[in-house]
Amino acid sequence: MPPKSAAKTRRPRRSKKPGVAIPDAIRLLTDEYGPFENEPRLDPAHELTFTILSQHTSDRNSERAFRSLMHRFGDLYAVANADVDDIEQAIASGGLAKIKAPRIKTVLNRILELNDGSLDLSFLGEMPMNDARTWLRQLPGIGPKSAGIILSFSLGMPAMAVDTHIYRVSQRLGFIGPKVNADKAHEILEAAMPPEDVYPFHAALITHGRQVCKAQRPLCGACVVSYGCPSRDEKAIRQAASDDASDNISADTDRPDGQAPGRRRRRGTTATPVPHTQVVKELQP
User: Fold this and answer.
1) DSSP string, the chain
2) Which residue range forms the structural domain that includes residue 118?
3) Does residue 31 share a domain with residue 171?
4) Residue 139 falls inside a structural domain
5) What is the per-residue pLDDT for 194?
6) Which residues of the chain have pLDDT under 70?
7) CATH number of the domain residue 129 falls in
8) Is residue 67 part of a domain?
C-alpha cells in the first residue's frame, strides 16, 4: 500500500487591502459630489423619533410622517402619553406604522423612566462618546446605526453611522471584509479614520451608494474610485473610457497614482441633502 502523501500545510489567507485608501476615497468622492456640509439637525429625542420613522422608507415619506406626528400631538411628551393607535394613524403616511408606532411610544417612555421624566438628552453631549453610545443602546430597538446617527448628527460627535449604502460600498472597496456584519462595521470604520473624517466619510459613501455604487447595477464606468475597487466591472469601465474617447471628453486625472480612471465627469450631481433640514427649521421657535 503506497504511503500516504504528507498533508499540505495551508497558508493563512491574507486579507486584501483596499486599492484605494480611505482618505483618497473621501477626497475624490467629495470632489465629485460635495462639499458636504454638516447642517443643523434635530435635538436628540426628535432625531431618535425621526430615525425610527425613516427606517425602511424614503426621505419624503419619513418627513411626511414626522410632520404629521408633530402636527397631531404638538410635542413628544404628548406622543409618549398617546395611545398607540393614535400614533399609528398620525404616521401612516410613512409606512410600517403598526411597527413604528409602538416602537416610538416604548422608546420615549423608556427615556422618561431613565431621565427623571425628561426627554432632554442634551446631557449626552457632555459624556465620553462611548458612554453616550452605551446609554442610547440601552433603549429598546436602538442599535449602533441609530445611536451613531444621534451622536453624530444631533450632538456633533465623531460617531460612525453605517447604513445599507455605506456598508455595501465599504465592502466593495475592501474597507471591511466580506464576512463583517453591519454592527461590527461601525467599530472597524470608526477606528480606521481620524474623528474629523467620520462625517465626510459617511456623507461621501452614502451619496456614492445612492447615485453610482447601487446594489443591483453599480455604475462602475462612472465611478471615481473604480481604479482601486476590487469589485469593479472591467467591461463597464472600458466601455466608459471608449465613450469618453469617442466624445472627445478628457478623462479625470485626479487619482492618487496619476492615471486617468477612464470615466467622464458626472456633472450636475449634488450631495445627498440632510433629509429633514426643513423640519428642523419648522421646530425652531
Assistant:
1) -PPPPPPPPPPPPPPPPPSS-HHHHHHHHHHHH----------HHHHHHHHHHHTTS-HHHHHHHHHHHHHHHSSHHHHHHS-HHHHHHHTGGGS-HHHHHHHHHHHHHHHHHHTTT----GGGGGS-HHHHHHHHHTSTT--HHHHHHIIIIIT--------HHHHHHHHHHTSS-TT--HHHHHHHHHHTS-GGGHHHHHHHHHHHHHHTS-SSS--GGG-TTGGG-TT--HHHHHHHHHHHHHTTPPPP--STTS---S----TT--PPPPTTHHHHHHH--
2) 44-155
3) yes
4) yes
5) 96
6) 1-18, 40, 243-285
7) 1.10.340.30
8) yes
